[in-house]
Model the fold of this input.
Amino acid sequence: MSHNTYGHLFRVTTWGESHGPALGCIIDGVPPRIPLTEADIQPFLDKRRPGQSRHTTQRREADQVRILSGVFEDPETGEQVTTGTPISLIIENTDQRSKDYGEIKDRYRPGHADYTYEAKYGIRDYRGGGRQSARETAARVAAGAIARKVIGGIKVRGALVQVGPHKIDRANWDWDETARNDFWSPDAKAAELWESYLDEVRKAGSSCGAVIEVVAEGVPAGLGAPIYAKLDTDIAAAFMSINAVKGVEIGNGFEAASLSGEENADEMRMENGKPAFLTNHAGGILGGISTGQDVIARFAVKPTSSILTPRRSVTRKGEEVDVRTKGRHDPCVGIRAVPVGEAMMACVLADHLLRHRGQTGGL
Done:
């Protein structure tokens, strides 16, 4: 199985399965002498960790990360820093229940990649989805923590802006609120509604989708290239690589199709001797290159496919069956997708920052 690596200069290779002994990643291209310890990575893994509320899977994983390579004691400061060599991270799995999946080992779960994996490889790990499981995203979050060290002052934050049909009221947006509720919602009133809505969804044995918005502040102008290395192209690809993501938009996204040219174009004026944009419909990217404004992107996550409601399917032998997926699953995977989206944005920005330096020597 190839294609487990993303990035060009900041390159991340993830490995491991949902019910294997461990998972992790190897990160290549990190500049030397950047302070880095497990304590810099763990808070982001804790944000993604399962079992933190009744609205996420009750699988209990500590998600404790260990750095296996790529760091050493700085000869001048004595602190642990990167050496410029590949950084290897490992996260052990400790709460697998493989027996929960015994009934579906020969059945294709509707909405999952069971059939397509077997059609391609002729074999699949049915225990929690194996490599296709969202458990793999723990490694991405760990890599994203290191990417944040590379991008320095650029701040990357994510929020849940829609659960099922219920959207936030953007007039209530408060970044501080995202840390005060179980949904990373910037709208306290929306979080209250989502709580009762998800309780109903969970009791019905069903699931729902969500939309996550990720904002990167402090991105300098000039990242990206106009043809095959557009910044928005790589952001879209990174988000689409996340499990269950079915759509991505940058800035106004699909809403731009309903605007006039006058409404959509971000006008400019001079401010403190520099060009300044009056609006940000483009989401901080024009012609594939960052404008210096906030980079804003959203991605849509489909409803969790593992549900208790029986769905029609077939077996490996072609028998028609009903499939009811047991186990511990998120009624809305969008909640824990917030830190994953942040991580992927950070990784893309780290890669483009290093590529920009390599081409222009700037920043």
Notes: Residues 334-360 form the longest helix (27 residues). Helices lie at 38-48, 114-121, 137-151, 188-203, 231-240, 261-264, 334-360.
